[in-house]
Amino acid sequence: MRPETLGAMLHCYRPLLVFSPSATDARLREQTKLLDAAADSMMDRFILLTPIVPNPKQYVTPLDTLYIVLNEHEMQAIRARFHVPPDRFEVVLLNEEGDVAMRSDEPIRVTPMDRLIDTWPRRKREELRRDSY
């Protein structure tokens, strides 16, 4: 089951919101490429790529990274909630509760994001559960 709203992602995923002025923006393509190169890490950490773009049908989806393309109404609501104007590129990592954990005006590299997530208590519990199997 794929979440249809940001609220439905919480407590299940760590949304990575990628706000872009265009579905074909070079920075959006670069962010997608960086995430695809580390798709196993993204899946292991339950990171859900969520592009926030105009004309979502033009968005070229990733090959391996877990992603969701929301409806335009939900994207507008998310853009308003995080105060990101339509002409700005910004990447926002949320924790499971929906709090902003990392924010950047350029594509985020995966390693710093992984290191940050690995410090979170819930992530530590996930690793303990995985190691006990």
How would the blueprint of this fold be written?
Layout: H1 6-9, E1 14-19, H2 26-37, H3 39-44, E2 47-52, H4 72-81, E3 90-94, E4 100-104, H5 110-118, H6 121-131
Parallel strand pairs: 1-2
Antiparallel strand pairs: 1-3, 3-4
Summarize the structure.
This protein has 133 residues and is α+β, with helices and mostly antiparallel strands. The chain has helices at residues 6-9, 26-37, 39-44, 72-81, 110-118, 121-131; strands at 14-19, 47-52, 90-94, 100-104.
Fold and architecture overview:
The protein is α+β, with helices and mostly antiparallel strands and 133 residues long. It has helices at 6-9, 26-37, 39-44, 72-81, 110-118, 121-131, and strands at residues 14-19, 47-52, 90-94, 100-104. It is built from six helices and four strands, in the order H-E-H-H-E-H-E-E-H-H. The protein is globular. It starts with 5 loop residues before the first helix and ends with a helix. The relative contact order is 0.20. The mean pLDDT is 93.
